[in-house]
Amino acid sequence: MIKLYVYHLGHCDKKKCSGLRLGRSGLARVVYRIDQLPLGAIVLDPFASKAISREDRERAIKRGIIAVDCSWEKVDKAFRRRIPGAHRSLPYLVAGNPVKYGKVSTLSTLEALAAALYILGFKEEAERVVSIVKWGATFLELNRDFLERYSEAKSSSEVVEIQREIIREVLSG
């Protein structure tokens, strides 16, 4: 299993937090300080210019994947901190969690990590991650076609091109 890290900034209800739930389940290590994060890991960053893709697979295996668990209202501030690692964005996906259901690109920490695993080709691990919450399967159902297409891309630029196609399809309806 790929090492998963949740950099928890304490913005959420601890009982409902998917990042903390991953920690309690033993699927991720929850950390509270930047110096506790592994060097060279993939950092899921909504502001990154490069999209996650299969070309990041070896880095994920060796270094792991970091998700920053913070409020969407404070996401700008959260990423002003220099988090060490290879920053990658996730492509167009739809939230399946009860708080942001149906909204584009406002994923929970659990959804973001599951999406990254799926795109990197670790589909069983993605299924395991979403299995710890009732709504987890909903996220995969909503995005299965998108995730399959992204997981076939060999590079970030291919993921971005697939994302453009998906957005055109969604808009043309």
Please give a handful of descriptors for the protein shown.
single chain; 173 residues; 7 helices
Structural notes for this entry:
By secondary structure, this protein is an alpha/beta fold. It is 42% helix and 11% strand. The chain has 7 helices and 5 strands, in the order E-H-E-E-H-E-H-E-H-H-H-H. It has helices spanning 18-25, 57-63, 75-78, 109-119, 123-130, 136-152, 156-172, and strands spanning 4-8, 29-31, 42-44, 65-69, 86-88. Helix 6 crosses helix 7 (156-172).
What's the helix-strand series? EHEEHEHEHHHH
Separation, N- and C-terminal Cα atoms: 38 Å
Q: Major sheet: order of its strands?
A: 2-1-4-3-5
- Give the C-alpha Rg: 15 Å
Provide a count of the helices: 7
Q: Which class of secondary structure composition applies to the elements?
A: alpha/beta
Count of the separate structural domains: 1
Largest sheet: 5 strands, parallel
| Average pLDDT figure | 93
Strand fraction equals: 5-15%
Q: Would you identify the regions where 5 or more consecutive residues have pLDDT less than 50?
A: none
Shape: globular
Portion in helices:
40-55%
Quantity of strands, as a count: 5
